[in-house]
Amino acid sequence: MNRYDAVLKQQIEAFISALSDVCSINSKRIIFYKTDYPIFNPANSAYFEYKHFEDILERYIREFLITPVFTKWLTIAGFHCKILKKKDNRHIVRTRYSNSTFGEEFIFAFSIEHQGKQIAYRYSSLCFTDEEIVAKMKRWNIDHFEIIDWSDTTSLESTMENYGVSPQFREKVRYVTLQNFLVSHFSEDLASLYLSEIQNAVKKANQLIGFQTIPMLSLKHLSEFKSTILTTLNSFSLGTTHYVEFSRSGELTSNTKPLLSSSDLNIITERCFSNMLFHALLGNEKFARCFMTSEYLFQLFIVGNQHFFDYSTVVSGYFKSVELLLEKLMLIRLENVGHDTLWIKCNQANRQLTSDSSNFRFNPNPNARNNIQVRFTEDNRRYFSNEMAPLIWFLHDDRDNWYVSDNGKDIIHDCLINYSQGCRNEHLHKDIIDNIATMEAVRNNTILCLLYLLGGRKITSSVTDDYCQLGANGDSYARLYKAIDRIPKHICVYYLKFENRPEQRGIRLYDQEDAQYDGLGNLISKIVFVKADSPTADDFDLSTKQISEFDAKDIIELSPSKMPQKMWWYNRIKGKKEIEW
Q1: Are 21 and 27 in contact (CB under 8 A)?
Q2: For the whole model, what pTM was predicted?
Q3: pLDDT value, residue 569
Q4: With contact defined as beta carbons under 8 Å apart, do 477 and 523 qualify?
Q5: Whole-Å CA distances, 241 to 299, 447, 466
Q6: What is the pLDDT of residue 353?
Q7: Nearest to 512 by CA among 559, 473, 581
Q8: How far apart are CA 231 and CA 222, in angstroms?
């Protein structure tokens, strides 16, 4: 173990030890935060308990895993470090404080001498007048400040700006990503080691505390949750993820189904992700609602006790999502191109209806000859079986209605059959499912089967119609809305480019309507701009006016049905900056 590893190990042990003391039974009896308005009951006691532990956890991360690790590592690397002590600061330091409060009371967390310059490091933005900055830099002999950007990124470039100082000090007060700080002063290997070890330590701390929020599924949270799941699905690797086999008795095995060929994977990837059909999994159809419910439960249970909880409630929604998508694909096939040469198994209530030989027959497959099939026409719809296995076999027999190769069809069929027989049937009849690996395997198989069906199956005659028939809802507007919402209000000048229209200059109005959502959690609030073709000194004053003060023809509204192709924000220092969403 080298010196860097030893420091990291020592600090993590101290971190866990300190938290263990805080989480002891005696410590948990202390009085936690309380609301100032108990008569109104703004939150329950559990909230305030977790608020207390969250505050301690974040403070301990800073005091055990950040400042001491950084300064000790820097010392090993040959830098001279200075840590600002309490005695150096004339303010009274609170026992509970966030990074921003810490930054208000300490001008820097630590500083180093580097290439003849004194660099001070902070953990939050700096907000001082020019005179205050000059005085503090002079007092501590600081050449410039670097603020560590804690965003979840491995980029070497930070996208954050410090608006708390005037433009003339922007070069003296700049953000650097954590990755940039670690790689610049140490190495990429140490950066990876630090991130992985600290993330594991914090995960262990969360388990120690039992800190796990279970948010109410308000429409706002549903919208954010759907965006998170879409991001997760968009990064799902079809090319490296195998279907995990279950035995006929429902036991998880170490066997996997083969991957699809590269050409078949390209077809499914193009349809699911380039053409966005995977959005159907968070749309308004029943299969999407089942999938979202299981995804929500999965996120809650994934950190649970593996030997206590029953995960049947999680997997049952996954099973129903595949079953209902199969049924939806069958019904779309019937609606769009009902075909009297296709047959489907009869439902249980009509097994004896064999008198009409033109509409009914025994299954010609020797292994299923006792099953009665009915001709696949709209008139016979009441006889169709909607069970999973018959639906799988119907899609299998409809061989011409796929985009993938014959080998690809067979692989997908084998996955679906195993999903029905070993994955689904047995687990719906077992007492409980208490193995988290089983739940994770079911989820893995579910996502694969859903994407295989959405991407590999011919649904309608066009992707646009596929999107509509599957009840898909995109999140493009929600992403644009949130991207604009993150831009500070004082930046009011924007440029918008709509399809087949020249670029427009608009001023974002300061007062916008509160975020609103439809019943499915989709963001529907408008963003309002007023046209201002030429720059004027009154741009900011214009932004503070009410929408009622403008003529309707001068208003530009963004909404889910009216989105620009491209958009930029503008200020005199940075110029035009494209908004990505």
Answers
A1: yes
A2: 0.64
A3: 94
A4: yes
A5: 20, 10, 25
A6: 54
A7: 559
A8: 14
